[in-house]
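To assess whether ligand presence alters the predicted conformation, the chain was also submitted together with pyridoxal-5'-phosphate. Input:
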Amino acid sequence: MTTGFRSIPPVNELLADKRVEQLVEVHSRDAVVDLIREQLDDVRAAISNGDAAPGIDDIIAQIARKCEERWRPWPSRVINGTGVILHTNLGRAPLSDDAVRAMERAAISYGDLEYDLSTGKRGSRHEHVSRLVCEATGAEAAMVVNNNAAAVMLGLAALAAGREVIVSRGEAVEIGGGFRIPDVLKQSGAELVEVGTTNRTYARDYETAITERTGAILAVHASNFKVMGFTHAPTIAELVDVGRRKDVPVLHDLGSGCLLPTEPYGLAPEPMPQDAVRAGVDLGFFSGDKLLGGPQAGIIIGSLESVAVVARHPLARAMRIDKINMAALAATLLHYIRGEAETAVPIWKMISATDDAIKQMASDWAESAGGEATVMESRSAIGGGSLPGETLPTWVVSLPTHRALHGAEGVARALRESTPPVIARIEDDKVLVDPRTVLPDDEPALLEAMKRAVEIGGGE
Ligand SMILES: *Cc1c(COP(=O)(O)O)cnc(C)c1O
């Protein structure tokens, strides 16, 4: 055992090695020395456990690998072959060219973010984007914060802290990632009053629950699950009617922020901000990076009076959106205002891609991948807490897996280990690549990766 320990090279010896010198040049001496110490600790621990002592080449290779892994540019670009359009783990919505240029502009230079160019005085960072939100949704007033979770929390804190908020039992739900309506309500300082039942709640349930302590009625869109069968929920207009008669503000968490109708694509209807405005909600909340197809953001729409109360709340500053996301949001909203969202916003291009176009791509790609790659019918998902269970018909490339070590898992791993990594979907032990979510620029790299995967999965 002691011989194993004695063969461990000292830090100085490693630092003198040409390969390590190169790492020091790129990453700095202190950082690399720390990493060397860490690696040598691991080696000592491994030897204590009875492992053989690694040679100096192995140790240096490990150190180089860790440098590469730890200090690589992050996040890496990956190719989304899963067919899940809003893949939360892959960063939800890819942005339009205009949005990317706007972000770059905002990042690289000074800008008139809070500066009024006509007067030369301080301006408001909210004014410009708020006006665009109003144009795109028809709202009277708007405000943008960090994300929709913040928007809901802020709206509740501003309008209902210290008071009761009435929520349907069917809507006191968990949206995911620890966002639970009852917990958010509690954190906002409001008190939850549940009405109705899990499957059926009526407008009169809300009405009878109103007391002098009521601060708001809150409707929450079931964005990641479906209740089927014997169900009832009042329309937002009915809730607004109750609220108006009883002088109680009605708040609506719409979730996705879908500004285009989904039915033309064969999808279920998703609540639209325009409809919430028409129904007359006091405040509506939605995400920037779900079906809006923009950056992470939380958008608050509503009446002048209610939005002004929200904007004055001290939490508003704590939930402020940064200038780069604001720039991307402004550019994304412009696509809707110009009526070009379907052709300019990447996620709407994916949703509206025709059956023929996808089938053509899948068969071209299967041919290019060669060997036993085939084309088959499948379904693409919307994902990302929007349109639960809703899918679009699609065509996918199915890659052979029978010769791969570890079958489908082995082929999927080989795809993930390509540069850039390709994320595929495994279904019934098949590895599927859906052209719908593959961005045009990704095609050449994807074809290379699929060729290699076919060799692994079905080659001789
Ligand atoms: C997604 C979602 C949220 C959270 O939105 P983020 O922008 O992810 O913070 C809140 N409410 C509903 C109904 C949602 O679908």
